[in-house]
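Can anyone check this?
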Amino acid sequence: MSLRDRELQHAKRLQNVSWAIVTLLLISVLLYEWSQVHKNAKLVQLDLTRNNLYQGAVNLRQNWELNNKPQHDEVAKIPFSYTSLGWPVVYKNGDLDCQKIWSLLSNGIEKPEYDAFSYRKLGDSVAYNSCLYDIGINKKLAIFYINDRIHIVSNLSP
């Protein structure tokens, strides 16, 4: 093998290694950008979920107004009551029933969009208790009632 052939082989190897490095660099940049897009998409999904839940509560409140302000009602086999201001609330043994509140407000979405939920009890009063739903990406969504008004808050960090 001549010196010229060795130089050509060396140049070819160097070119192949360069292409491999460029390819790996492009793949790593694309994976990083995809993770950022995925994270932003999850945040948008979280906001849309909050808006959907709030719209479900608004729809039920409007029905309360139109139906002469009943104290109790039932939707999709979920019995619930209304606060004095007409916001829907579901109780189980005197505490908020987080799973049924989600089902009631989610406008019939079959699959829950949360990974897990927890009930946070603050003191003796149900008025300050809240349902916390783990949405993923280290964010939580909370549903709670203050002064008979529903509050739905998203983007909470654990």
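Reply from J.R.: I decoded it. The chain is about 45% helix and 25% strand.
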